[in-house]
Amino acid sequence: MDNSTLKFTQLKRPLAFDLGAYDGKDSLFLRSKGYKVVAVEANPKRYLCKIKPLSYICSEIASENACISKTNGYVDFFISKSTGVWDSCNKELAERKKNIIENNNKVYNCT
């Protein structure tokens, strides 16, 4: 997480993490219930189009483009073309059911 997100999490208000934020609906729901939200999405394209804009329209939502994996630093991220629920840092998971994947993405591992 960058410094702005770390400062955001130190506020004395209820805080929720939306890991795998996907389209941001859960982040918006949590915000409507009074939580400050950190929305984390690993898919770089989905993050830029769906999640990052949430932090511009609502100061109570912070966003991060990051993933959780076994490797430190930047990792390959595989995007399933059939459905976003199979996107993964694990190639075998992204390829299940013979999905065609794209692998031109690097995502920061936040662990």
Using brief descriptors, characterize the structure shown:
4 helices, alpha/beta, 111 residues, three-stranded mixed sheet, 6 strands, elongated, 2 domains
**Amino-to-carboxy terminus distance:** 10 Å
* β-sheet strand percentage: 25-35%
Helical content band: 25-40%
The total domain count is 2
Anisotropy-based shape: elongated
**What about the largest sheet?**
3 strands, parallel
Rounded average pLDDT: 81
Report strand order across the widest sheet. 1-2-3
- Compute the gyration radius: what is it? 14 Å
How many individual β-strands?
A: 6
Number of helices: 4
Give the low-pLDDT segments: none
List the secondary-structure elements in sequence, H or E: HEHEHEEEHE
Structural class: alpha/beta
Compact summary:
The chain is α/β, with parallel strands linked by helices and 111 residues long. The chain is 31% helix and 30% strand. The protein has 2 domains: 14-67, no CATH class; 73-109, no CATH class.
How would you describe what is shown here?
The protein is α/β, with parallel strands linked by helices and 111 residues long. Helices cover 31% and strands 30% of the residues. The chain has 4 helices and 6 strands; from the N terminus they run αβαβαβββαβ. The protein has helices spanning 3-9, 25-32, 44-57, 91-95; strands at residues 15-19, 36-40, 61-64, 66-67, 73-80, 101-109. The chain is elongated, with a radius of gyration of 14 Å.
